């Protein structure tokens, strides 16, 4: 693999492996850009419906930032292996995906990060909820936020919330993103100062 790294958020951790750009199978080849494949492997058992839908969200997010036009007719595979899931798994996967793309030196139009918000029954917002807090929440929202202008690249919601509550969660997620992008910068700096 071009990149292999593990990313943890609280007690949730994901191992990301990035392979490629390699020659694409004819069936998957795209004439104008790289074909991007995202595989999400659960801690135990085989991937199910939930993993498939998360793979799609992860792929959409990565495709929005990878400058695949620089590698037409190639394939890039991102494999995410769940090591432990104690809540906020999708945002941990998003962060692992971005760090792997960055680590592999793929050209990106912007960085992105994932932030999960749990909306409690009383309307308070919890960032980076644990599995238990997710179970008690009225709604769980996960955003993929770009480092350029803090734009939303992807949003997914489970449960029910008002438009106003969704906007409050987004604002909280955009503020939290600043900390994550700072973490990216620090870890990249640490990695390169060692070599």
From TrEMBL:
It comes from the Eukaryota. GO terms for cellular component: cytoplasmic exosome (RNase complex); nuclear exosome (RNase complex); nucleolus. GO terms for molecular function: DNA binding; RNA binding. Keywords: Cytoplasm, DNA-binding, Exosome, Nucleus, Phosphoprotein, rRNA processing. Pfam families: RNase_PH (PF01138), RNase_PH_C (PF03725). It is found in: Cytoplasm; Nucleus, Nucleolus. Residues 7-107, 111-175 form the Exoribonuclease phosphorolytic domain. Gene3D superfamilies: GHMP Kinase, N-terminal domain. GO terms for biological process: nuclear mRNA surveillance; poly(A)-dependent snoRNA 3'-end processing; rRNA catabolic process; rRNA processing; U4 snRNA 3'-end processing. Its main location: cytoplasm. CDD domains: RNase_PH_RRP46. Homodimer. Component of the RNA exosome core complex (Exo-9), composed of EXOSC1, EXOSC2, EXOSC3, EXOSC4, EXOSC5, EXOSC6, EXOSC7, EXOSC8 and EXOSC9; within the complex interacts with EXOSC3, EXOSC8, and EXOSC9. The catalytically inactive RNA exosome core complex (Exo-9) associates with the catalytic subunit EXOSC10/RRP6. Exo-9 may associate with DIS3 to form the nucleolar exosome complex, or DIS3L to form the cytoplasmic exosome complex. Belongs to the RNase PH family. This is Exosome complex component RRP46. It comes from Panurus biarmicus (Bearded tit). The gene is Exosc5.
């Amino acid at each position: 693999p071009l990149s292999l790294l593990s990313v943890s958020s609280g007690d949730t951790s994901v191992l990301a492996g990035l392979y490629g750009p390699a020659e694409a199978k004819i069936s998957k080849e795209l004439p104008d850009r790289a074909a991007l494949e995202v595989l999400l492997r659960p801690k135990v058992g085989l991937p199910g419906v939930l993993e498939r839908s998360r793979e799609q969200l992860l792929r959409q997010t990565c495709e929005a930032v990878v400058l695949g036009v620089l590698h037409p007719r190639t394939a890039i595979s991102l494999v995410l292996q769940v090591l432990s899931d104690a809540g906020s798994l999708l945002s941990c996967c998003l962060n692992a995906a971005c760090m792997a793309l960055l680590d592999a030196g793929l050209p990106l139009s912007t960085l992105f990060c994932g932030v999960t918000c749990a909306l409690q029954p009383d309307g308070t917002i919890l960032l980076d909820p644990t599995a238990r807090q997710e179970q008690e929440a009225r709604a769980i929202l996960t955003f993929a936020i770009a480092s350029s202008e803090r734009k939303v690249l992807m949003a997914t919601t489970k449960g029910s919330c008002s438009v106003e509550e969704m906007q409050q969660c987004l604002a909280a997620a955009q503020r939290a993103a600043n900390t994550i992008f700072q973490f990216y910068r620090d870890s990249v700096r640490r990695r390169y100062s060692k070599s």
